[in-house]
Design brief:
17 helices; 262 residues
């Protein structure tokens, strides 16, 4: 029976059979702990535990990817256990957020979506006017922005809180400051809050027909490198408005970026 179990696990994880046999005692202890101990789990959690027992999930990057998937799938028990393990290993929320974001930056689906959004700009006149290094930066920024959205969704159980926060930022600064203080008082870091607001901003823009590639193109086109026409070392409000109005964007996007969208 032990050999059949080993063969099944080898097939599941693609690990040499001799490695499975060597670590079978650790696997059994892990399974026993979850089956009969105080802690309860589901199939996904047990699979993760077996992976740790086999030494498959031992690198920190592997743990971040497993954590991201647990959060993405709404597996709260598995997510909480892995999150606590990382905290016990000396990581803080910032480390975990960065680890999850790095996982998504290299995720094939995120990169595929990012490449598609980047290629959608090929015929845009503003995009064509950018220097080569800024085009390269823009592609990385698009992927990073998508990774930020995915990270916030994986880490925060109620991401709608950021939609409310972003709405307050647009319409009521006092309410925004109050809500942000409440989130920080609850233990959420300012860095995660800032990422949440950015994800909410992008989500809102999508709802009014502006995609993330246009938003990031706007950020580059209105930087001092391109918009500082009088070489003052900064970008005035009038220079920013002029840069936006020259961009190859529809009027809806221009109104939004000019702050006049209703």
């Amino acid at each position: 029976k032990a050999r059949r179990i080993s063969e099944a696990l080898a097939a599941l994880y693609g690990v040499p059979l001799k490695n499975i046999n060597r670590d079978i005692e650790a696997i059994v202890k892990t399974i026993y702990g979850f089956a009969f101990g105080a802690e309860k789990t589901d199939v996904a959690g047990l699979e993760f535990a077996i992976g740790e027992g086999l030494g498959i999930i031992k690198n920190t990057s592997d743990k971040y990817s497993a954590l991201a998937k647990a959060g993405e799938n709404g597996n709260e028990e598995k997510y909480d256990r892995m999150y606590d393990n990382l905290l016990e290993a000396g990581k803080d929320e910032g480390d975990i957020k960065s680890g999850i974001k790095n996982y998504y930056r290299t995720d094939k689906d995120v990169k595929k979506e990012g490449s598609k959004l980047f290629s959608d700009l090929e015929d845009n006149k503003t995009f064509k006017s950018l220097k080569k290094e800024d085009k390269s930066k823009l592609e990385k920024d698009i992927i990073s922005s998508l990774a930020t959205e995915k990270t916030v969704s994986a880490m925060v159980r109620e991401p709608d809180v950021f939609d409310e926060l972003y709405e307050a930022l647009r319409n009521n600064k006092n309410l925004y400051n109050q809500k942000k203080k409440e989130l920080m008082a609850s233990g959420m870091s300012e860095s995660l809050i800032d990422d949440g607001i950015e994800a909410a901003r992008i989500s809102y823009m999508k709802s009014i027909g502006i995609d993330v590639n246009e938003y990031l193109l706007y950020k580059i086109a209105t930087s001092k490198k391109y918009a500082d026409t009088n070489n003052s070392g900064g970008v005035s409000k009038s220079e920013k408005t002029a840069a936006i109005n020259k961009m190859d964007l529809d009027e809806n996007a221009k109104r939004f970026f000019n702050g006049s969208y209703k």
